[in-house]
Amino acid sequence: MAVARITDVDVIDIRFPTSRELDGSDAMNPDPDYSAAYVILRTDAGDGLEGHAFTFTIGRGNDVQAAAIAALRHHVLGRSAEAVCADPGSVFRALNGDSQLRWLGPEKGVMHMAIGAVVNAVWDLAAKRAGRPVWKLLADAEPEWLADQVDFRYIEDALTREEAVALLRKGKDGAAEREARLLTHGYPAYTTSPGWLGHSDEKLVRLAAQAVADGFTQIKLKVGADLADDIRRLRAARAAVGPGVRIAVDANQRWNVAEAVEWTNALADLDPYWVEEPTSPDDILGHAAVRRGVAPVRVATGEHVQNRIMFKQLLQAEAIDVLQIDATRVGGVNENLAILLLAAKYGVPVCPHAGGVGLCELVRHLSMFDYVALTGTTEDRVIEYVDHLHEHFRDPVTVVNGHYLAPTAPGFSSEMHAASIAAHRYPDGSFWAADAADADLAERRKGTNR
Ligand SMILES: [Mg+2]
Asked: According to its UniProt record, which cofactors does this protein need (predicted)?
């Protein structure tokens, strides 16, 4: 039989008009249109299986992100589907090792996120071919094979391959019991839906109370635009949820270091659980200073941390209490494996960033693997949950009683419905074409009224 090859790498700019509802609004991002620079790997295997994945962006620039993914096409076109699925790390190394494209990073920004999309599409295809969800594929894998998926370059001073194998071997102890527990109980979640900056106080209080009624034990509020507003909103949320529910606050990089300390301490009476992204994601020593200045409030960051090397330094500098991986910010599953291993070694809990479009769908696989076969615990660990745009995915998340249920469908849960792609492709999908026609009509009406 002929070897099945990757025959097409389709790249699609997909956007959702979320800015119109102020969902997702925070102090730095007042009007995001949640978007996906989406990639589909097709093969000639004749089994109908495709690898789907994407980079999450918030609107303008999604075309730039899509162009970066397209620039990687030649590295995967024509490659054996079986070979890449048996070793997704080989794809990570090939993409990351492109010496000309590397100039655009290295290992950071648009190009690195593009690598993550292609690598994640390979994992989706590999898991579909294996008939298992990605979390299970990872949890069942041999420690040596998993360690081979990690690029230890630049992190060996903090974590050697031998240490990684030892952590993964230890993670195998009791994995079967934990897998059974995961399948019945799910994995703890917290919700950000009540706390967007664009919500009225009334909506905040209503959604916060609803979150507790729905079984969540942690919610999150966006802060950082106006201190008096933040105190008022946090007080209202605290009154609505009571003292036993954790409330995290998220500044989305709004502050300088001293300001972060001052502002967080001004909120301390209302018992915020963690302060997220207090300052620039690149400021390791700044995060360490904030952490010293706001204790016992915890410091969390990660959704904009660009690679494993930055995470390594945040851990080495004791700059964070909570590490927030993101499924599409770094170089895909392979680099997130490195980051999960670093966090396990340093004993820092991982509470993934999610929301956006599709991030909840993807990142649950990584936390579930971590629970079943790496750290073996969910203590002080929660995955972010935001309740929108899930309807566009073929294997959407289900959250019951404040817990993500474990996905059982083969793949990475990253595939959107064909109808959603057709409607939201930018700018020519049916939604955007109709929207442009409406805007055009409104403009012409304005013209005749003048
Ligand atoms: Mg955040």
From this structure: Mg(2+)
**pLDDT tens digits, 49-66:** 999 999 999 999 999 999
Q: Where are the domains of the chain?
A: 6-133, 175-418, 419-449
pTM above 0.85, yes or no: yes
pLDDT confidence of residue 440: 87
Instruction: Tell how strand 51-57 and strand 322-323 pair up.
Output: unpaired
Annotated catalytic residues are: 222, 353
pLDDT exceeds 80 at position 240: yes
Structure tokens at 267: 């909120």
Q: What average pLDDT does range 294-307 have in this prediction?
A: 98
Write down the H helix ranges in 248-331: 257-267, 284-294, 308-316
For residues 76 and 91, the answer to whether their CB atoms sit within 8 Å is yes
Tokens found for residue 417 = 């419905």
CA–CA separation, 81 and 14 (whole Å): 26
> 446 CA distance to ligand 1 centroid (A)?
40
| CA distance linking residue 12 with residue 214, whole number of Å | 36
Q: Give tens-digit pLDDT for 20-56.
A: 876 667 777 778 999 999 999 999 999 999 999 999 9
**Residues, CB within 5 angstroms of ligand 1 (ion):** 250
Check for a shared fold between 6-133 and 175-418: no
CA distance 109 to 275: 24
CA of 287 to the centre of ligand 1 (A): 15
Angle, CA of 146, 84 and 54, to the nearest 5°: 90
Percent of the chain topping pLDDT 70: 98
Q: What is the mean pLDDT of residues 233-253?
A: 97
- Distance in Å, CA 251 to ligand 1 centroid: 7
Instruction: Report, at the CATH architecture level, how domain 175-418 is classified.
Output: Alpha-Beta Barrel (3.20)
Q: Tell me how far the alpha carbon of residue 219 lies from the centroid of ligand 1, in angstroms.
A: 12
Separation of 85 CA from ligand 1 center, angstroms? 32
- Residue 385 is inside which H or E element, if any? strand 383-385
DSSP helix, strand, coil percent of the chain (3-state; round to 5): 50, 15, 35
pLDDT at 24: 67
Average pLDDT of the residues in 134-148: 98
Q: What is the CATH number of domain 6-133?
A: 3.30.390.10
